[in-house]
Design a protein that fits this description.
Number of strands of chain B: 12
Low-confidence stretches of chain A: 1-18, 349-388, 549-564
Low-confidence stretches of chain B: 1-26
Number of helices of chain A: 9
Distance between the termini of chain A: 8 Å
Structural class of chain B: mainly beta
Helix content of chain A: 10-25%
Largest sheet of chain A: 6 strands, mixed
Number of helices of chain B: 2
Order of helices and strands of chain B: HEEEEEEEEEEEHE
Structural class of chain A: alpha+beta
Shape of chain A: globular
Oligomer: heterodimer
Mean pLDDT of chain A: 89
Helix content of chain B: 10-25%
């Protein structure tokens, strides 16, 4: 809860507590060895991923960042609430860090949990410039564990970010090796009949859309804490211990479906904020999201952490074991996902011609349900989740609908309920519709049809509560990340709606989130898929008015004590 | 204590100085590359091949393009030609320089100039065309030409890629030229001039940057153009076996 009085008092006490952590980071050229290939990239303190920064809630941290590259750099503290000048986005928060320069970040740590940091310059993040942040809470946490590990995932690619962007612009399917082939046509024909298969292919061909367009950038090696599947990062445990795993998806482009065969996972935190514990067999982690789970292996044996990409084009793998060197079986990846017409439901302005929608149904009666947006709007997400295996945050009949490998529970956004709401529930002051738009053939991505280069900033007023309506009109999933202020994801739980920093919007769906506009300044707001953001799915948000600057600074000092 | 006090006073000082700083930074305009249109370049050779004809003619043939620009405007240099290995001469040699802008979701319009400088008379043309992706995944390139002699012609190029697997690709290409007036000097008769049909089986060896292929190509001349070719002692129909590579980088 926001309790300014208490926060203010704590703020006054702050200097007396005298907590101040100082950290040094260098930004360096490094070699990244994935086990499959070795590639030059960018790292921190001589390695990629960089170090795990361990902060304490309530302290003021000073971080000296020295740029040893021959190009500009920056560090964004992903998910941290801080004065906007410290947010690390060149051109929005600050000018960036020149080669050879040391820039000193200084900000109060007002929250606890698992976060991460990364460069916000060019494609330095996909090239390796990322690391983890763990913030120790002031108060006791509502869950217990004996040991903890950061499990930071990425999708390391043998090509540099610049080259990937250029290849995608030249040939949008450059990296897609899951396209439908002649062989698949025949296997579909024998399953669904020749005419239905032909009609299906014609319907997609008419739209010039690919069912296989789940992952734009394939050919990566999934890394966990910098280790490829063969290098097998291993976390040691003693049987019976509770282990807290802090999953962070630092990928440029890849969503991962994560499971640990033989173990249930209790999700206790999402995007750094405690959630009411929910036990699952598997969960999907969007790009830039974090999930903290607690597992309790009781047997003296190894367990595989298996993270296969949403489109099944690659995987990351690690091990939990009582001793170094022990291994468990690594599962096979499941079959590649295929989009359905439901995922195309959001497409407007497409020339559907005289295509007969009814004929396209491939025996999946729910396929077309997602086409009707009006029916989505009033949908009560939480109600739909009850006793229904399908996830309401996917278009009904979506080809991306997650299913647990063992047939058990797969985490849905609808399962996420805040443990301790950060804000009091109130009516939003207004709604802003953001249509997520793009053109796959041109590999151009935009919001409301306008790329960042041509867009005016989104202007918010300090003190208002804005309801953002995301309408995904593309066939891709977009993890939308608002800097500087929390994203209260509407899962239909009212006051218990979870508080996040990154919200995934699946194709053909509409998702709402609300933001208490409580931080002055200007902020970035974008799709966190690196090549979507760079192609234009990006906005600047300006928070206007509010406390005068003096007060804003006092607030910043005051908030240092207790917000979370 | 004095250390703490100095910290506090630094904080107060900071908050007094900050208003100006905040106001100034709020005005910060994003001048980073992110706020600029992505400017990119690329090189593609759809055909770069050796051809061996059914009457033992050997040719080196290419069709490629270089581009530089943004989503909104690209400069494109297209080059294609056929080099006769025996005669050491260019049977055809064509270069185009065009500007290209998007006109619909899937199509671009282009305009520019084309220079033909083969063995024999040269021609310069003005070019207007469209290029893009038609329904059912046909890549279309259609152009209208006006020559410096005042002759007009049109060319349609269509290509379809059949994925045998995600690495083995069978590409069918069809190209047809129609002339609206005769240009006897360069052997072009009025009406349907010629067609070229190709079938190439390629394998993506290095990503999509190097894809070697083998294939067959059929070239045919029609009507008055065929008559002009016969009068010159040339052939009107050829079959070629081809081997080459598709290149993109």
């Amino acid at each position: 809860m926001k309790t300014p009085m208490v926060a203010g008092l704590l703020g006054l006490l702050m200097p007396a507590l005298g907590m101040a952590g100082e950290y040094n980071l260098t930004v360096d050229r490094v070699m990244i060895d994935t086990g499959d290939f070795v590639k030059e990239g960018i790292g921190y303190n001589g390695a990629s991923p960089g170090p795990v920064l361990r902060f304490k809630e309530g302290e003021t941290v000073t971080i000296n960042v020295t740029n040893n590259l021959d190009e500009m750099t920056s560090i964004h503290w992903h998910g941290l609430i801080l004065p906007f000048q410290q947010d690390g986005v060149p051109g929005i928060s600050f000018p960036g860090i020149q080669p050879g320069e040391t820039f000193t970040y200084e900000f109060p740590v007002q929250q606890a949990g698992t976060y991460w940091f990364h460069s916000h310059s060019g494609f330095q993040e996909p090239d390796g410039a990322y690391g983890a942040i763990v913030i120790e809470p002031e108060k006791r946490e509502p869950f217990r564990y004996n040991r903890e590990y950061v499990v930071q995932l990425t999708d390391k690619h043998p090509h540099s970010g610049d080259r990937i962007m250029r290849n995608l612009k030249m040939m949008p399917d450059y990296y897609n090796r899951q396209q439908q082939t002649v062989g698949e046509f025949f296997s579909d024909s024998s399953e669904h009949g020749f005419m239905d298969t032909l009609k299906d292919r014609m319907a997609w061909g008419d739209m010039r859309m690919m069912k296989a367009d789940v992952e734009d950038v394939q050919g990566f090696t999934g890394l966990i804490n910098g280790k490829g599947p063969e290098q097998n990062w291993t976390g040691i445990f003693e049987p019976g211990e509770r282990i807290r795993l802090r999953f962070i998806n630092s990928s440029a482009m890849t969503y991962f479906d994560i499971r640990i065969p033989g173990l249930e996972m209790t999700v206790v935190q999402a995007d750094g904020n405690n959630v009411q514990p929910v036990t699952v067999d598997e969960f999907r982690i969007g790009v830039a999201e974090t999930y903290d789970v607690i597992v309790r292996p009781r047997d003296e044996k190894a367990y595989t952490i298996f993270a296969e990409s949403m489109g099944r084009s690659g995987y990351a793998r690690a091990t939990l074991a009582p001793e170094e060197g022990m291994e468990a079986e690594v599962p096979e990846m499941r079959e590649a996902s295929r989009l359905t017409m439901a995922d195309m439901g959001g497409m407007h302005g497409m020339d559907h011609g005289d295509m007969d929608h009814g004929d396209m149904d491939m025996g999946e009666p729910d396929d077309m349900a997602g086409m009707d947006h009006s029916s989505m709007e009033g949908m009560d997400h939480s109600a739909m989740a009850m006793g229904d295996s399908s996830d309401p945050f996917y278009a009904a009949g979506s080809g991306l609908m997650p299913v647990a490998a063992n047939g058990g529970k797969f985490l849905s956004y609808a399962d996420l309920k805040a443990q301790d709401p950060l804000y009091e529930l109130r009516e939003p002051t207004r709604e802003i519709e953001l249509r997520l738009t793009g053109n796959m053939e041109r590999y151009s991505w935009s919001i409301n049809g306008v790329k960042y280069e041509d867009a005016d900033p989104i202007r918010l007023k300090y003190g208002e509560r804005v309801r953002f309506k995301f309408v995904n009109e593309t066939m891709m999933t977009h993890p939308m990340h608002l800097h500087g202020m929390w994203s209260i994801l509407d899962v239909g739980a009212g006051q218990w709606n979870p508080i996040k920093h990154t919200v995934s919007v699946q194709p053909g769906t509409t998702v709402y989130m609300e933001t208490e506009v409580d931080e002055p300044g200007q902020w970035a707001f974008h799709c966190h898929l690196s090549y979507h953001a760079a192609a234009g799915m990006f906005r600047k948000v300006i928070v206007e008015g509010g406390p005068d600057s003096t007060k804003a600074n006092q607030d910043i000092a005051a908030n240092a004590g207790g917000d979370a | 204590m004095s250390y703490i006090r100095s910290l506090v006073s630094a904080g107060v000082l900071g908050s007094l100085l900050a208003p100006a700083a905040v106001a100034a930074e709020e005005m910060m305009v994003d001048t980073t590359d992110r706020k600029k249109p992505l400017t990119l370049w690329g090189v593609q050779f759809e055909e770069l091949e050796y051809r061996y004809s059914d009457d033992d003619e050997e040719l080196g043939v290419w069709s490629g393009d270089f581009f530089y620009g943004t989503d909104e405007f690209k400069l494109r240099w297209l080059t294609k030609g056929e080099y006769s290995i025996e005669e050491k001469a260019y049977e055809t040699l064509e270069n185009q320089l065009v500007g290209q802008i998007p006109v619909s979701t899937f199509f671009d319009a282009k305009a520019g100039v084309r220079f033909d400088t083969p063995e024999g008379p040269n021609r310069t043309y003005g070019v207007l065309g469209v290029t893009g992706l038609a329904p059912q995944w046909f890549e279309i390139d259609a152009n209208f030409y006006v020559s410096d002699e005042g002759d007009t012609s049109a060319e349609l190029d269509a290509e379809y890629e059949l994925l045998l697997t995600n690495y083995w690709i069978l590409a069918a290409a069809f190209d047809a030229t129609v002339a609206f007036s005769e240009d006897e000097e360069i052997g072009v008769g009025k009406g349907l001039v010629s067609t070229e049909t190709g079938l190439r089986l390629s394998y993506d060896l290095v990503d999509r940057s190097l894809s070697p292929y083998v294939g067959v190509v059929h070239e045919r001349k029609y009507g008055d153009t065929a008559d002009l070719a016969r009068a010159e002692g040339g052939s009107t129909e050829d079959w070629f076996a081809v081997v080459g590579a598709r290149i993109a980088f």
